Structure formats: structure tokens, C-alpha cells
Amino acid sequence: MDFRILDASAFYAGVPFRSSSDCYTTSQVYDEIKHIKKNQDALGTLLETNRLKIREPDENSTKAAISAAKDTGDYPQLSKQDLSIIALCIELEGEIISDDFAISNVAKNLGLKISPIMTQGIRDVGRWVHYCPGCKTDHKTGKECPMCATPLKRKLLKE
After folding, report:
1. Which residues pair with 3 in a beta bridge?
2. The domain that contains 93 carries what CATH number?
3. Structural domain total, the chain
4. What's the domain range around 144?
5. How sure is the predictor about 50, in pLDDT bands with cuts at 50, 70 and 90?
6. pTM of the model
């Protein structure tokens, strides 16, 4: 199948309006972008001609997306819209169109196809680790070191 799964940035960049590919998104993303007044008629036309399909991911795909995001450490950076796009890609095995680093990192860690829009995309894929610059300890999550109360920083452990 030749279709794309679009996050909000793809709509802002005009991807569905200049593409002949079928496009999917979720209702959460559609609610986020439907305020685009100048393209409101264009969105309606895409829906009427069935070139834009709004679909919700199934529960298993959603759980898999959340689990993968937690594994990579990207979960705190992802919105419910972002997670819905990853889950839909897991379910449909399409191609995500996004410039979002966290979406890209999770998708690439899952072996999903993802293409950037206005950037060159991410180069490094890996897992985020929170670390304390004070006592040099690593932590799975958090904002502050539980041992010395120093604010935690993040670094990407590349694969």
C-alpha cells in the first residue's frame, strides 16, 4: 500500500495538499489542525474525496506505541496526538510524515518508515537516559536526582 500517516507538522507544511498519496491521520491530530482557516475548504475536499482518512489506532497498537516511547525515554516529550500517530503506523504499516524528533526516534527504534518534511530528519537513534551532573548517576526518569536533588539532564545513548 502506498499511503502516508500525517502528524500536525505535515498539514502545516501542506503535504496532503500537494500529494497524490492517500493520507491517514487520527481525530486527535485533525482536531489540532482543523483551525487552519485558509485550508479549511482544502481539508474538506480531501475528506470528501477520501484522500484523507481519519482513523483511530487499535488498543494493542496504542499500548505498543506507549511501551516503545517509554523504552526509548521519549514518552514525556510526546503528546497524545504524537502517540496516536505512532500507534496508527504500527497498525497500518504506513509511512509517518513528521519532523518531530521524539516521534522519529520511537518510530525508527520500532523499525517503522518515517520521512521528514522540512528538515533532514534525525541522524542518531537511541534511548534517552536521565543523568545527574552532580553525583554522576543515571536515572530512568525524573526531573531531580533522588540522591542529591540536582536537576537531571538528558542524553541520548546512540545505538
Report:
1. 22
2. 3.40.50.1010
3. 2
4. 126-158
5. confident
6. 0.77
